[in-house]
Amino acid sequence: MKVILDILIRFLYVCVGLILMSAFVELFIRGIQLDTGLFLSNLVQILKSLVFPTTLSIIGPNGKEYSIFLQFWNHYFYSLSIFLSALLLALAIGIGLAYLTTLLPEKRLQFVSKTISLLEALPDLFIIIVIQFGVLLYFKQTGTLLFPVAATGNDKSFMLPILALALIPTLMVYKVILFLVRDELGKPYVILAKSKGFSKVYVFFRHILRNIAPSIFSHSKSIVLLLLSSMVIFERIFNINGIFTFIITYPEPSVIAFTLILFYLPIFLLYALVTLVINKTTGQRLEW
Questions:
Q1: What is the model's pTM?
Q2: DSSP labels for 53-84?
């Protein structure tokens, strides 16, 4: 019961932060308006809309008022599916690459580590252009379009945005895990496990990965922030009609607050679940 209460309090703290930020954003949408009355009015409007979300509305291009739920869920689930897929893909590939790298000789391992550091420094925009160019070049040579390079009308693009969005986080996950694993390899429990004849796969995924899970969890927060910040750019470049495009199109404080809280909810639940699992398997209480 105490754990659930602690989780709910954390979620409320984040919601308060998002509400204050949403009310604050309105002060800069139509020029700089540092008006305390406007800020408080925005807060009241946001709180009312959160209590009665069915009253949330947007002004359409024709000047008429519509409920946001006519379009909202399509935008929401489109962005959420890309975000969560990219996050899980980055974690899975990062862990797999880290394991394969530990099998290499020390000299090659150092070379790979330096190469990863170099790739990690590449800007997102450059990576997107290279991937899109590669897909178009393959299409020109073979006549086969591997993935749509951008969403068009009702045709949504998933594969290419997910791959492009996951690339830099994958390198970050890989680098962090590789660093942690190299530190673990010399510890007595790993040497003992190897001396007993356990395979490298078993030692890595059964013991090492479990022991470094808390550290991976701690670093994952910066990866989530990177993904969130990149989503805004990616939706523009890939013509994704997602939730951040929705916010930019309808920058009302109540719409922003409702959307951000709803987008944060599954991420929060995922973190809460992972925290409970790590606490149960390792006995370590994580701060997040």
A1: 0.81
A2: GGG-EEE-TTS-EEEGGGTHHHHHHHHHHHHH
